[in-house]
Amino acid sequence: MDNHTSFGEGVMSESLVEKKEILTYILYIVVFLFVMSRAYGIANLLRFLFRHLNIGYSDRKMKSLDEKWFNVQLFKIINRINITKIEDARLIQKGLNDGFLKSSDFYFTNSWGDVTLPMSLPRKIRSFMMGLTLVILGSVAWYVQEPIIEGYAKFDFKEFSYYISKEKFFITNKYTKSSPPAIHSKEDCKNSLKLIDSTSIFAIACTKFLDESKSYQWWLADEIKSINKAKNSLSTLAYIYLTLGTIWLFSLVQFLRAGKKVREYKAFPEND
After folding, report:
1. Distances in Å between the alpha carbon of 17 and those of 10, 20, 153, 243?
2. CA of 119: how far to CAs of 8, 32, 116, 185, 253, in Å?
3. How far apart are CA 56 and CA 8, in angstroms?
4. Spatial separation of the C-alpha atoms in residues 103 and 96, rounded to whole Å
5. 80 backbone φψ class: left, alpha, beta (φ>0; ψ -120 to 50)
6. Alpha-carbon dihedral sign for residues 217, 218, 219, 220
7. DSSP letter string over the chain?
8. Which residues contact 262 (CB under 8 A, 6 or more apart)?
9. In 10 A of CB 134, how many CB atoms?
10. φ, ψ for residue 197, nearest 5 deg
11. CB contact set of 40 (below 8 Å; sequence gap of 6+)
């Protein structure tokens, strides 16, 4: 008995160690991807690493250009504002210092490119259409999964539908959806079958519900599992598409507003 117990504990501890190692690797990957995102690619990471190690260009002009590049990249990483020129970095930093620009103006804008450059009308239309398409796909997925009832197999009969699970069932009518349907148990069916018409929807549903044959029970379990999987998959897709579409449209509007504000600030006489 003790041997079996120690063996089981050993297997469990090995399993826990393996899971911990997997989670550690996943954490490393997530951190690496986050750093990559913040640093705008592996090339920037390498350059920051070389700079930290005091490895640089020996050519004077290249050193000067590299210094400008470093300042631009550092500004982008710290502020999450996408620009390409050191002059624009200075302008935006001045606007932030003056209070005309706010850090919140630039949230979610960095993925759209240089915030100082206006977006062309064709690209603007395509971008809005893409965001709307994501929202529409999410809405369609949500609409499709909404009638699916988790944990039940559905059967249609004329204008009725009856839903059967392992322990209960209910009947709906497509013409009367005002009140929630009554939930029935196996005991309800056993007590009612002798008293009602065998051709009624309740009798038909009860007969199916009380079927204890192995083949039917296996089919019912598989059908319920399949329905649950379909609903969960559609719900997940709906959440993903709606979230992506919302973020896409919000970030696009943010980018357009921020760009307009930066160009307005740039047009001030003192900034010429």
Report:
1. 11, 5, 41, 35
2. 63, 31, 9, 62, 11
3. 57
4. 7
5. left
6. positive
7. -HHHHHHHHHHHHHHHHHHHHHHHHHHHHHHHHHHHHHHTSHHHHHHHHHHHTT---SSHHHHHHHHHHHHHHHHHHHH----S-HHHHHHHHHHHHHTSS-GGGGTT-GGGS-TTSPPPHHHHHHHHHHHHHHHHHHHHHHHHHTTPPTT-EEEEETTEEEEE-SSEEEEEETTB-SSPPPEEEHHHHHHHTTTS-TTSHHHHHHHHHT---HHHHHHHHHHHHHHHHHHHHHHHHHHHHHHHHHHHHHHHHHHHHHHHHHHHHHTSGGG-
8. 88, 91, 92, 95, 101, 115, 116
9. 20
10. -65, 130
11. 73, 76, 77
Dist CA 262 CA 115 (whole Å): 8
Chain-centre distance for alpha carbon 224? 26
Distance CA 199, CA 104 (A): 67
Q: Which residues pair with 205 in a beta bridge?
A: none
Per-residue pLDDT of 111-124, as tens digits, reads 898 999 999 999 99
The pairing of beta strand 183-185 with beta strand 168-173: antiparallel
Residues 6+ apart with CB under 8 A from 53: none
pLDDT tens per residue across span 209-258? 888 888 989 999 999 999 999 999 999 999 999 999 999 999 999 999 99
